[in-house]
Specification:
alpha/beta; Rossmann fold
Length: 130
């Protein structure tokens, strides 16, 4: 099912990027990674991935700014956004609730749950379901 689907992982923690890559690659996903939001935004604009996994607290451009800047892109190329963070506060819940096609995972997260969320999204998308 994952054949030719692309996942962009944007996190300043190398180990998180690597764990997710090791979990997703065997499922047939093409993996792109970025260590900060600015590099992630450039890849998002160039590569149009099917899924964006993004941490909130990052250098150069944080996850919230990346999500807000990428949200309009979903009108021409829909993609799932998975926000991962160690702490969530009520202010973050407000802006995250405004995102289309979004899932939230709190750190420490289960890589298997992220894979499940991606596969569920892609399955519904291929069926034309909202």
């Amino acid at each position: 099912m994952a054949s030719s689907k692309t996942v962009l992982i944007v996190d300043d923690d190398f180990h998180i990027r690597k764990i997710l890559e090791l979990k997703l690659k065997p499922r047939g996903f093409t993996i792109l990674t970025a260590p900060n939001g600015l590099d992630g935004l450039a890849l998002l604009q160039e590569q149009h991935p099917d899924v964006l996994i993004v941490d909130i607290n990052m250098p150069k451009l944080d996850g919230k700014a990346l999500c807000m800047m990428s949200e309009p892109m979903k009108k021409t190329h829909p993609f799932l956004t998975i926000v991962i963070t160690a702490r969530i506060n009520p202010e973050e819940e407000v802006w995250m609730a405004k995102l289309q096609e979004m899932r939230f995972m709190e750190k420490p997260f289960s890589p298997s749950k992220i894979v499940d969320a991606i596969e569920e999204y892609l399955h519904h998308k291929s069926k034309g379901s909202p």
